[in-house]
């Protein structure tokens, strides 16, 4: 049973690595800043994200 669970976890990790590589190639600088900020603080506000990337809140809603 534990072997089955372990195998499933390994498959999930492999698939996530593939997605990360594909997405990372098309991410803008501002998008990367936003993703990094959300990783540090999942409860960050739109206003805080806008301040981090130096754009108006209205614009950040479209990212």
From N to C, what is the helix and strand string?
Answer: HHHH
Our count of domains comes out at 1
Q: Radius of gyration over alpha carbons? A: 16 Å
Q: Identify low-pLDDT runs.
A: none
Q: Approximately what portion of the residues adopt beta-strand conformation?
A: under 5%
| Share of residues in helices | over 70%
Query: How many DSSP helices?
Result: 4
N-to-C CA distance: 43 Å
Shape: elongated
* Secondary-structure content class: mainly alpha
How many E strands?
0
The largest sheet, given as strand count, sense and whether it forms a barrel, is: none
Query: Please, what is the average pLDDT?
Result: 74
Short description:
The chain has one domain (2-60).
Describe the structure.
It is a single chain. The protein has 63 residues and is mainly alpha-helical. The protein has one domain. It is 75% helix and 0% strand. It is built from 4 helices and no strands. The model has no long low-confidence stretch (mean pLDDT 74).
What's the arrangement of secondary structure elements?
Layout: H1 2-24, H2 29-40, H3 46-53, H4 57-60
Keywords:
63 residues, mainly alpha, 0% strand
């Amino acid at each position: 049973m534990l072997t089955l669970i372990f195998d499933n976890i390994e498959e999930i990790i492999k698939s996530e690595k593939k997605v990360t590589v594909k997405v990372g190639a098309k991410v803008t600088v501002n998008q990367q800043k936003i993703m990094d900020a959300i990783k540090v603080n999942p409860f960050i506000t739109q206003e805080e994200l806008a301040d981090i990337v130096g754009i108006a809140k209205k614009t950040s809603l479209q990212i």
